[in-house]
Write a structure and sequence with these properties.
Blueprint: H1 5-27, H2 34-41, H3 48-53, H4 56-66, H5 70-83, H6 93-106, H7 112-122
Helix pairs in contact: 1-5, 4-6, 5-6, 6-7
Length: 123
C-alpha cells in the first residue's frame, strides 16, 4: 500500500535527519565510528560493507527503490563523497559520481552545484 503524502513527508524527513547525522560523523574526526555509521545506514537497508561491495547501478536503484527523494539522494552522495576522502573508503568516489549523474538525469533538472561536485570528485 503506498504511503499517503503526509507519511511520505515524515519518512523523507526522518531519512533526511539520518543522512545529516551521517554527514556530521564524517566531518567530526572524533565522532566517526563504523558501528554508528552502520546503525544509521541500516535505516535505508545498507551498511559500510554493503556500500563498499555494491555496484554504482545497484546503489542508484536501491536508493530510488527505498523511496528517497532527489534531495536525500544528493545528501547521500555528499556523505559518500566526504567518506571517500578516508583512505579505506576511496572506492566510494566513483559511486558518488554515479549518484550525482543519476540525480542529474533522473530529476530532469540541471544543477550547476551537482556538476561542480562531479568535477571535484573527478580531479
Amino acid at each position: 500500500m503506498p504511503l499517503s503524502l503526509g507519511l511520505r513527508d515524515e519518512e523523507n524527513e526522518r531519512i533526511n535527519n539520518q543522512l545529516k547525522k551521517l554527514i556530521s560523523l564524517v566531518f567530526v574526526p572524533d565522532g566517526w565510528s563504523d558501528t554508528t555509521a552502520d546503525e544509521d545506514l541500516s535505516q535505508i537497508g545498507l551498511s559500510l560493507g554493503k556500500l563498499k561491495g555494491i555496484t554504482p547501478d545497484e546503489l542508484n536503484n536501491h536508493l530510488k527503490d527505498t523511496g528517497l527523494d532527489w534531495a536525500n539522494i544528493e545528501l547521500f552522495a555528499d556523505f559518500m563523497a566526504e567518506l571517500s576522502q578516508k583512505q579505506e573508503f576511496e572506492n566510494l568516489k566513483p559511486k558518488a559520481v554515479s549518484l550525482y549523474s543519476f540525480i542529474q538525469m533522473g530529476s530532469k533538472m540541471f544543477s550547476f552545484d551537482i556538476t561542480s561536485k562531479i568535477a571535484r570528485l573527478k580531479q
